[in-house]
Amino acid sequence: LYGSARHRELVDSPFIYPGRDPEADKQLREGTYVFQLGRALSLRGIVVDPDGQPVPGAKVSVGYRISSDRRTATSSADGTFVVTGCKPGKTIISAEMTGFAVTTMEADISAITELVRLRLQHGRVVSLRVVDAVGQSVTNAHVQLDWYPHLPTPMSTPKPSPVQTEFNAKTDGKGRVVWSNAPDVELAFLVDAPGHMHLNDVTVHTDEQEHIITLPPALVVTGTVRDATSGQLIPRFRIACGWPDSNHPNDPTLAHWSTIDRFRLNFADGAFHHSFEEPLVMHVTNPRYILKFEADGYAPYTSRVIRPDEGEVQLDVQLVAATAITVTVLSPDGRAVAGADVGLISPGARLRLVPGGFSHQNLDSVGALLTTDTAGHFNLPGDKTITRVIVAGADGYAEVMPSELASQLTIRLQPWGRIEGTYLVGGQPAVDRDVQFGYGHGDLNGVSSDFLRFRVKTDTNGRFVFPQVPPGKHKLSGLILRPPPYDKEFSPPPLTDVEIRPGETTTVTLGSGYVVSARWRWADGVTAGTNWSVLASVHTPVPPAF
Questions:
Q1: Cβ distance 416 to 465 under 8 Å?
Q2: Does 493 sit behind a cis peptide bond, omega within 30 degrees of 0 on the bond before it?
Q3: In 3D, which of 217, 261, 208, 254 has the Cα closest to residue 239?
């Protein structure tokens, strides 16, 4: 769940995520949570035509089209407008009216002291023709203006003002579509048609020329799924659709699996036929595919990496029978534990451990996260790629190897541990510093600790507390800010290793008695500038020898 509150004359409240914020979750359940709306500004201005004459009825918007902070208004008979509820700071302002090209400008709402003047211009003609791989016209292809890639993200600097308007059209019998009032800028389009692969980021210049867009054929995957021993067709099976990890593009075991329903396919009678007409992830340079075949009573099978330009691909899959075993989870005092999270760790699982369980946000893997039933049971599939089983819940934590469950069909939880610590810099308490807990075997492809949920701040005495951490050998690190323009946090090397014992409190001291300052220089002696950060951790009681 996530949400916010909004009012047309105020700035929206920040989004809250109860699943990630235990305090917000508690307050929401108690009915005491307060959504705090922000103070807003009003933007006043006038819309005029190319000759400077007022334009009534123009639509004026402040903010990006996809943003929840976007506010709109309509110009009056004299062309003037007032947009209320604007969020202070840098944004974009757009005006559009039938018969003109949309105009968009960047502005800092906080710094505007006079009327904003938005001048509409006559548009340019953009002509597109969509054809297939052999040059034949594609009728009823969908052509849409793509303004989404230009939006700023929390981890990047906003790009130049995009075109903030809608354009949707279908090609005619000759595969043509015309936009008669396009702005005089570089435009990007999305193009799709049945039986063809979708195209993203089709860039077109408004040069009055006809632009040819070639749609490649769809990727068609067909085949059979059989029992590896008997050769019989398997009556019911599922296919999960994924894409390769960008760092390991040819390793299907590290695939990302789509959570969208239309990419989780069900088939019967041992045969499958599916046409892929879109990439699983938008705006990727090489939208390749990986398929995982699953059936009850069988170990899953993962296909090779399939390129989108392979046309028709035949896959005849054989699944190996594998009997699942039922495992019971017990609390430290021997009670059956219902509702505990069970993480099946394998390459590509990408599970995130949080205090008291696993994160259920944006699960990336298929079937990697289970929950114990009312009797404390879960079924462990016969999947040889599973390397560990981690159970985490309010009652405790446990981590076992699958081989250990072959003879012992129970998992007994251990109590969570606790960390209390002090962070020093230059021998003095480090106030309001972020400290990050890192799961000891942390592997983003397998299991790691959640970046937000396992992060705390030091108090005025430099003290910090992690009230609920898993037993075992783990790490603590500090978070620092890089100088502008890279004002985003990153985690330096661990400050210290910690060993957590079940049900006990571990006390640690981070930092050092000395502050080390340094400047990077390239080999040629040129100073690297301010875009580099240096962290020196000194753990000895004597000064460093430099």
A1: no
A2: no
A3: 261
